[in-house]
Design goal:
Length: 236
Amino acid sequence: MPDPTTKGTFQTDIPADAVEEAVRSVERIEGEKQAASPAPPAEVAAEPSAEEPGSSEGENLAAQLELSQKLARETLERLKETHDRYIRAVADLENYKKRAQKERDEVVRYGNEKLLKDLFPVLDGLDRALSAAAPDDPLVQGVQLVRAGLEQVLARHGVTSFSALGQPFDPSLHEALLQVPSSEHEPGTVVVEHARGFLLNDRLARPAMVGVAKAPEPAPESEPRGDGEREEGGQG
């Protein structure tokens, strides 16, 4: 009889071999089910195409090259413009230096021209005084010394005088005041000099005031008188 203390329980004696056999059977059935069911497709990682990255990189390089060439052309144009401006500036500066140097030379050589011209009439007056004075006048020697000293002062400032007597008339050096009939000189020859000419550093400061020879006018022919006029003259 069963033990009254184990009421509600079920007890059976199963051999261990049977239990192991049952477990193996279950495992075999599960393995067959897994083998019969199709395996899920393996997920393949999408690899990037080898062509697309290469094409994109080539386009980037081409774009960068074009941009570099554009920047290089723009830089070259700016350099060319800057060089041209520099060349023009250097040329303008050289021209300015030449003009400034020429103006300085002009000031040095001809800056006192007005003052020197004011002294020319003084020399003219001394020349007229000497030509009008008697040779034995005791003042002649003093006037000559004053005139020589004044001429030396003018020479130190680049002034030289010249005479036009006996020379052909030159309108670039002489100023004709009158014409003098003369049979002894060729027409156009300077025969009278009222004032000498002056040069300032090889530039004409004042022309010589001269008279120029011209051919004398022919003498008027005498008209012969008639017989009646001679008779009247004889009667008178």
